[in-house]
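About this split. The held-out portion is used to measure sequence recovery: a designer receives only the structure tokens and must propose an amino acid at every position. Recovery is the fraction of positions where the proposal matches the reference. Here is one held-out target exactly as it appears in the evaluation file.
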């Protein structure tokens, strides 16, 4: 019984990680399509990336691949948002 409960909890954790990891994809797609970034807070993204990076470190310490992979993916998506935030903000300033 204990192993089944642990397996169920493992799947809940994986599902939570995957949903969290893909949560910013709609925002990334919208930014790429519309090139509108003025309402995107770079400070929020940087704080989020720092927190996600700590989750990656924690995943390595715990030797937990789902925790590692989902948070690495999240870091990448949010770094892409920072990249486009800077890129599209400069275009507007430069004319």
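Reference sequence for scoring:
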């Amino acid at each position: 019984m204990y192993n089944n409960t642990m397996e169920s909890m493992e799947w809940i954790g994986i599902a939570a990680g995957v949903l969290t990891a893909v949560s910013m994809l709609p925002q990334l797609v919208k930014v790429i399509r519309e090139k509108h970034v003025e309402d995107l807070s770079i400070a929020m993204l940087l704080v989020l990336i720092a927190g996600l990076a700590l989750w990656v470190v924690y995943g390595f310490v715990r030797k937990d691949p789902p925790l590692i992979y989902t948070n690495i993916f999240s870091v990448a998506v949010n770094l892409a948002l920072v990249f486009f935030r800077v890129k599209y903000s400069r275009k507007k300033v430069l004319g």
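Annotator remark: The chain is about 85% helix and 0% strand.
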